[in-house]
Amino acid sequence: MQQESPRLRLLRRLTEASGVPGNEDEVRAVMREELGTLAEFSTDGLGSLVCRLPGRVERPRIMLAGHMDEIGFMVTHITPEGYVKFQALGGWWDQVMLAQRVIVKTRKGDLPGIIGSRPPHILSLDDRKKMVEKRDMYIDVGAAGEAEAADVFGLRPGDPVIPESSFRLMANPRLAMAKAWDDRVGCALVVDVMRELAGDHPNTVYGVGTVQEEVGLRGARASVELVKPDVAFALEVAIAGDTPGIKPEEAQGRLGKGPSILVYDGSLIPNRRLRDLAIETAEADGIPYQFAAMAGGGTDAGAIQFHAGGVPSLVLGVPCRYIHSHTGIVHLDDYDNAVRLLVALVRRLDEPTVAGLTAWSDC
Questions:
Q1: Residue 141: CB partners within 8 Å, gap ≥ 6?
Q2: What is the b/e burial string over 285-322, where b = at least 16 CB atoms within 10 angstroms of the residue's CB?
Q3: Is 213 in the active site?
């Protein structure tokens, strides 16, 4: 069996870790362990991990933010029959949820379950055409009743629930399937970029694993107060549009064609000069890139940009198929090129360059 590369091992460890909003402990531990003695660590009051990598000078400060949380669920109620009612954490489309395996993280350990569904044999023709809504769904953990679920299995309201989906390479070994690419790919980028830089940069880099992005960019609002950045990058997935039923104008990303530069989302219009610097850097270094635009949703950059009168911010993403479901697919070439682009960008962000990002000539 071929030995797994450090980069592949990192992606496996991060995607297989559990971390729905408010319960990112496992992901935080992996990031800290993988960075080892390379960075100086701190946390904020919400649990975001701040990893400081000194460079040749203290400022400018460059913030690389990847959110540690993944979409999932939370236990809200146990029925008398022992079934689990839940709250969705993050944006789930109801149609992708039924009959999927999950893991409930209880005080007594991991509890396997499945989101229940009715067999088609007993559905009327009208029912077969209807989408089951989240509010009508439940998780079956195999409990005989409420007492067994609570007392024997250890279930409590507030327990996190994660999709069950392991990391796996596909027949094309440059394609990888896993849960939680949104946004463990960003967390991995934080780690790998800091490893590549290893102090050789004209600034100070703060790699931040933020919490609770999927429920309102909450962690970024707190962690930016600790970092006080001069420039920020949100490291994310991008929606891959190279599957049947998606129009190019809906999602431009294609697997294997390079990282995406986001030109618009529901929370951010990026700093134009920082966008142009990313394009110029990619072209100068022969790094393939794509553009992305997303009318709905937002990223940590949308919260970070407001700090201290405004922070030039940009989102760089790795295209991913089937985000916000149990399993997504990414191309490892896109990930590698995202690392290359970020490393090259950070090394260009010296004090004069950063000052130029906000030198508005009409003021």
A1: 82, 83, 84, 104, 111, 112, 113, 149, 153, 155
A2: eebebbebebeeebbbbbbbbebeeebbbbbbbbbbbe
A3: yes
> Do both 213 and 289 map to the same domain?
yes
Q: What pTM value is reported for the model? A: 0.95
Q: Looking at the structure, do residues 66 and 89 belong to the same domain, yes or no?
A: no
Q: How far is CA 338 from CA 192, 286, 288, 293, 315, in A?
A: 10, 12, 9, 17, 11
Give the pair of three-digit tokens for residue 90.
């993050």
Classify residue 38 by burial, with Cβ atoms within 10 Å: 0-12, 13-18, 19+. Answer: middle
- Regarding whether 330 and 216 lie in a shared domain, the answer is yes
Sign (positive or negative) of CA dihedral 353, 354, 358, 359: negative
CATH of the domain at 80: 2.40.30.40
At residue 21 the predicted structure's pLDDT band, cuts being 50, 70 and 90, is: very high
Same domain, 192 and 311: yes
- Which entry of 24, 70, 213, 236 is annotated as an active-site residue? 213
Distance of CA 53 to the CA centre of its chain: 21
Whether residues 61 and 98 share a domain: the answer is no
Per-residue pLDDT band for 164 (boundaries 50, 70, 90) equals very high
Range(s) of the domain holding residue 224? 6-70+179-356
Domain containing residue 295: CATH number: 3.40.630.10
Convert 230-266 to b/e letters by CB count within 10 Å (16 or more is b).
Answer: bbbbbbbbbbbbeeeeeeeeebbbbbbbbbbbbbebe
Alpha-carbon torsion angle 53, 58, 64, 68, nearest 10: 60
The pLDDT value recorded for residue 1 is 47
Q: What is the pLDDT of residues 168-204, one digit of tens each?
A: 999 999 999 999 999 999 999 999 999 999 878 999 9
> How many distinct structural domains can be found in the chain?
2
Same domain, 192 and 331: yes
**CA–CA distance, 342 with 186 (Å, rounded to integer):** 11
Domain match, 99 and 151 both: yes
